[in-house]
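Feature request, filed as a ticket because there's no other form

It would be nice if the structure record came with a short human-readable summary line next to the tokens. Right now we just get the raw output. Example of a typical job, pasted below so the devs can see what we mean:
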Amino acid sequence: MDGNSPLFLNETCTNRLRHNRVLVNLQRIARRAGLHHPDSPHPEDKTTVKALRHFFTYWFNESGLSKDYVAELRGDQRTESQDVYYEIRTRRLIEEYQKYAPVLDIKKIKTDKLKC
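Raw output as currently delivered:
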């Protein structure tokens, strides 16, 4: 992954999804799960992409996933000069992600079957 790689792609893998489309989809799913209440005056009752990003980071940090892998998954920009020599391979990243994600009931990703 590099800093320009999209995290979310459309169903044909030809374009990156725009923030608004991700937000609409996220809130639709969260509403079904009872986690999003758009009419509530309390911000904590609403689901946003930023809230999901914070949850994602907290969850994986607490689960023990390496901070380097968390940063890579989040798409954080590398800042230290030695970081340019440190490469995280996609297959290894997926393996590490899957070690810490089973509690979320995320199905195993078959990397040889990825469309994108």
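Something like this underneath would help us a lot:
The radius of gyration is 16 Å.
The CA atoms of residues 61 and 67 lie 7 Å apart.
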